[in-house]
Write a structure and sequence with these properties.
495 residues; alpha/beta; Aldehyde Dehydrogenase, Chain A, domain 1; Aldehyde Dehydrogenase, Chain A, domain 2; seven-stranded mixed beta sheet; 16 helices; 22% strand; globular; binds nicotinamide-adenine-dinucleotide
């Protein structure tokens, strides 16, 4: 483990103050910002806040590279993506440890995320060769309409810290497959995973300038990408507040996909398999410490199952381990990524308890010296919740879930839809009428029934209402990276 740890810290040291511009890692000239290990508060390194000149260098490099990358044969782009996927998979453990060090999730979970990124590279490689257009019938003889797909241009990707590999990767893979070039601005908390991905792009011989990574504050460097006239599309994942700000502040008309916050409900109907529902609730409420946009935040349980559900979910939550994710790769929960989501979790819990919720499990940080300097919290279940409580109406982004009973399905639908968000919703039911009623009535971009994995690579993934616009994944996700050009040809045959 010591050799392993040395290699890990050497990798981080090599990325100290680094930016990835025009195919090269270079030391940034701007202010240094510390990056902390959330499990113990130690500073693991610094990033450079990219200066306006460095932003311009990266965007200009991407703009130049677009001219050739967009004209490469699809097969060439597919091969590059396959090489990238192979390199990432081969180094998954090391990349996972980098992620754990900056983000806190246990190494095994981080490794799963890195391997899913590798899978995404292969998925998009295959899609790259299947980008066709359409021939549209005309109502006059002698004409033919073709709809041609052309890559948009330079993509500015702005990403959050909760899935530092996948949320960068989906945008990167779609850009590479479509023929776009990309400038990535990762979250301040998790820059090293993005820089490690950039190193893999260089190893995979992806041409200089096609992929660039700039570090720094969102309000400065992220905003500079939004403002830059050469950036043709913003692909943003993050909070609804920042997504709205980006939409409102963008000074030019440009394409945007905004994958934003959630406040996701689970409905456990009277016909549900209780144990399966508990298992699903446990996984989707507490994985990654609940720091998931599609985390289950609130659960509505038919009154006939209510007390049994609460008892089982509470016991299962109490059985989960919370540990330093680098030392204990198989822990259920690691450290939360920073003090901010931890404080919000505590605030939502205090609010719920003050307004009459019943504490069923957790409710505090784990005890012991090893937890003293990190951002740890036990998985927490509160019952008898109402919509006067923040836990039921706002995204907590922490290991806290609220539970409430319902008597009639219509009431469950009304409660589940009582939110400005519309990202993901979950249902456990065995009765076909209940399943159909809920899947139709839930006003969400994703509805998972008798499972809690709402996103798969080849189906569209996106939110509605304040959860965003646009899609990632699937054919729909890839089409977000294209213009459609209508070519109307008068060939005169049959005139
Ligand atoms: P955030 O909105 O604070 O930050 C996201 C990114 O935006 C960061 O890189 C940040 O530096 C940047 N940013 C901040 N201000 C900016 C500005 N003015 N202009 C341009 N960029 C700016 O979000 P976060 O705290 O990092 O992540 C948590 C949020 O992300 C949660 O709300 C979660 O639900 C959401 N999220 C959504 C999805 C999804 O697919 N819908 C997935 C993961 C996370």
């Amino acid at each position: 483990m010591n050799n392993n740890k040395n290699a890990l810290f050497e990798s981080i040291a090599a990325l100290e103050g680094a930016l990835f511009i025009d195919g090269q890692l270079r030391k940034g000239t701007g202010e240094r910002l510390p990056v902390e290990n959330p499990a113990n508060g130690q500073v693991i390194g610094h990033i450079a806040a990219a200066t306006p000149d460095e932003v311009n260098d990266a965007v200009s490099a991407a703009h130049r590279a677009f001219q050739t990358w967009s004209r490469e044969l699809p097969r060439t782009r597919a091969d590059a993506l396959h090489r990238l996927g192979d390199l990432i998979a081969a180094d998954a453990l090391h990349m996972a440890q980098i992620m754990t060090l900056e983000q806190g999730k246990p190494v095994n979970e981080a490794k799963g995320e890195v391997l899913k990124l590798a899978e995404a590279c292969h998925f998009y490689a295959e899609e790259a060769t299947r980008i066709h257009g359409e021939i549209i019938p005309n109502d006059q003889p002698g004409f033919q309409s073709m709809v041609v797909r052309e890559p948009i241009g330079v993509v500015g990707a702005i990403t959050p810290w909760n899935y530092p590999a996948e949320l960068v990767g989906w945008k990167l893979c779609a850009s590479l497959a479509s023929g776009c070039s990309i400038v990535i601005k990762p979250a301040e908390l998790t820059p090293y995973t993005a820089l490690a991905i950039a190193q893999k792009c260089a190893e995979a011989d992806i041409p200089a300038g096609v992929v660039n990574v700039l570090t720094g504050k969102g309000s400065v460097v992220g905003q500079a990408l939004v403002d830059h006239p050469y950036v043709a599309k913003i692909a943003f994942t993050g909070s609804s507040a920042v997504g709205l700000h980006i939409q409102q502040s963008c000074p030019q008309v440009k394409r945007m996909s905004l994958e934003l916050g959630g406040n996701c409900p689970l409905v456990v109907a009277a016909s549900a398999d209780l144990d399966a529902a508990v298992k699903g609730a446990l996984r989707r409420s507490f994985r990654n410490c609940g720091q998931i946009c599609i985390a289950i935040n609130r659960i509505y349980v038919h009154r006939s199952l209510y007390e049994a559900f609460i008892g089982k979910l509470g016991a299962a939550a109490d059985g989960l381990s919370v540990q330093n994710g680098l030392e204990f790769p198989a822990a259920d929960l690691g450290a939360m990524a920073s003090a901010e989501p931890l404080n919000k979790t505590r605030a939502h819990l205090a609010d719920a308890l003050e307004k009459g919720a019943r504490l069923v499990a957790g409710g505090k940080a784990p005890e012991g010296n090893e937890y003293a300097k990190g951002h740890f919290f036990r998985p927490t279940v509160v019952a008898d919740c109402t919509h006067r409580m923040l836990v039921m109406t706002e995204e907590t982004f922490g290991p806290l879930v609220g539970v409430a009973p319902f008597d009639h399905l219509a009431e469950a639908v009304e409660l589940a839809n009582d939110t400005p968000y519309g990202l993901a919703s979950y249902v456990y039911a065995r009765d076909l009428t209940e399943i159909h009623t809920l899947s139709t009535a839930l006003d969400y971009g994703n509805v998972a029934i008798n499972n809690v994995d709402a996103g798969i690579m080849n189906a569209p993934y996106g939110g509605r209402k304040q959860s965003g616009v646009g899609y990632e994944h699937g054919r729909e996700g890839l089409l977000e990276y294209f213009h459609f050009k209508h070519v109307r040809l008068h060939h005169g045959v049959g005139n």
